[in-house]
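Work Package 3 (structural annotation) set out to generate three-dimensional models for the target panel prioritized at the project kickoff. During this period the team completed the workflow that converts sequence records into discrete structure tokens, so that structures can be stored uniformly alongside our sequence database. As a representative example, we reproduce one entry of 205 residues exactly as it appears in the project archive.
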Amino acid sequence: MSSVNRLKGLAAVIVFSFTLGCLGITKTFPEKKFYLIEVKDIKKVSDSPRPFGFQIRKISISQKFEGKEFVYRKDQVNYESDFYNTFFINPSANIREEIAKSLLSSNLFEWDGSIQNPINNTHFIEIYISQLYGDFRDKQALAILDFEVVVYTEKNSVSSPIYRKTFKNAIPIQGQSPEALTFGWNEALSNSLQTIVVDLSTKIK
């Protein structure tokens, strides 16, 4: 490429850049941020772990909310996903970890069968998450987390449910920021898990 052609190419880039600047067109993008749902401390149901083991066999989430991007509901028919504010890991995996951690810390169970003693599991858990979004339709924003939990025992391949409950959480939050929404989800899951632990403490002895 001749020096003349190089100069012409450079001049074209300068002119193009100058034109964009004059038009006020700039390519700036928000910083992408990542979040995790984290459960508060769960109250213990006994001084030492009870001699039981659990396994979360299944945790599923509605396809509307199974992606990493946060979802906001803006009106009756309008939902928006947020590319720049997302879960650090898939929300189903995030919630699975928090549930397992809480069940162990409550002393309701002694081991998590997904990690250890899989043969000696005494109880099995399945969870279906139907709603997980920020409800921004009204002035008062809400963190929505709805799910159903089923706990059962199994003998000779026959399942016997001992607990089944649906939780519908709509936690008021301060503003429509992803940070506030995450804090709302934290509170929703913490409250629900505390109820689950208390309920199961009377059924698992």
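The longest strand covers residues 158-172.
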